[in-house]
Amino acid sequence: MKNKPANPFITVGYLGPEYFCDRREETDRLLKAIISKRNVTLISLRRMGKTGLLKHTKYLLEKQKKPVQVLYLDLLPGMNSKDLLNGLSSALLRLKNNEKNFIEKALGLLSNLRPKISYDALTGQPSLELKLESANDIQYGFDNLLHILSELKQDYVIMLDEFQQISNYPEKNIEHMLRTVIQTYPQIPFVFSGSSRHMLEPMFKAANRPFYQSSELMYIDKIEETEYRNFISALFLAGGKKIESQCISEIFRWTRLHTFYVQYVCNLLFEKKEKVIDMSLLKEVFFQIISSSEPLFTNYRNLLPSHQFQLLQAIAIEGEVSQPTSSKFISTHNLTTASSVSTSLKALNEKEMITNDQGRWLVYDVFFSRWLEYRYGNL
Ligand SMILES: Nc1ncnc2c1ncn2[C@@H]1O[C@H](COP(=O)(O)OP(=O)(O)OP(=O)(O)O)[C@@H](O)[C@H]1O
Ligand SMILES: [Mg+2]
User: Fold this and answer.
1) In this structure, which topology does domain 296-376 adopt according to CATH?
2) Correct CATH for 225-292 of 1.10.8, 3.40.1360, 2.30.30, 3.40.50
3) 195 in ligand 1 pocket by Cβ < 6 Å?
């Protein structure tokens, strides 16, 4: 695998199984589905670990005795179905495979779409651009891509991360087109992944949508606490440091055990020169996080209507709120009326500033929540 990182607590990407905690059940379930050619849809809160899980599964699939090759594509940067198709064909070009004249064959099959190869100046990675002028071109291109894969001797899986993006594409019927083509190639399983529950879930759960019942839904939750605790202790020890058990409990409480935030706190702690991580160092790091994000968070206050910001403050101060329209909550936090709270709640939810976890409202970004609590909690 790659070189040993200076800091074992990664906050972007995937560096191999040594730096990836647990997720054994989830990985196992995903591997089984892919090997049995079933489609899966991964859903979780943002920053809980979907992309990490996809990359970990990719690593394991490609290392198997009978490897399964993975075409992974992040749909976040793309704006439309052309970007999706060009992204997929570029990923196809970068696949490792032993087929003779693979690239020539692929380009031959796509020749109607005048494929153009270019090479990234920095990484040397090839990209493929197709001439896509109509909805028919897109369908033809997608069909041919899957056809090329289906003819290869190895097994393949296509992972589409941030799949809810396709609902924002300007082209009509893209869902329908994708579904139609995908189901003609049952030998190529798909993993769809995304965080926007209110966009992704209806795509797969509503009877009138093309992807209805076409894949099994898999929810990614928090990492199991004991596993995470052992993982953190071990990585500190391997770096010649010791973290007190009480500190780990406090990190889990402060970050709600939300993966990215746990990783981030541990990353900052690891960077400190101290060999023993105790509560006072941890408090310092919490304060460091809150104060370094201050300019960004202050800006939210300028961007949001004042009632919405007030409601955010109230939720953050309480930590979690199950009855936001109750008279007690409204009067404690001067939120005027139940109907204004309902309106603000809806607006904040649409902006993904808050989220509902099993009936309890929370400020979505954990660090923002802690900042609000710190700044306004004692007024
Ligand atoms: N099992 C894990 N062990 C250690 N670190 C992890 C694990 N899963 C994810 N991470 C790290 O946590 C951070 C957030 O994870 P990731 O990007 O996978 O979340 P995500 O659900 O895809 O987020 P988003 O919705 O924003 O795309 C990343 O830095 C990732 O490296
Ligand atoms: Mg992701």
Assistant:
1) Arc Repressor Mutant, subunit A (1.10.10)
2) 1.10.8
3) yes
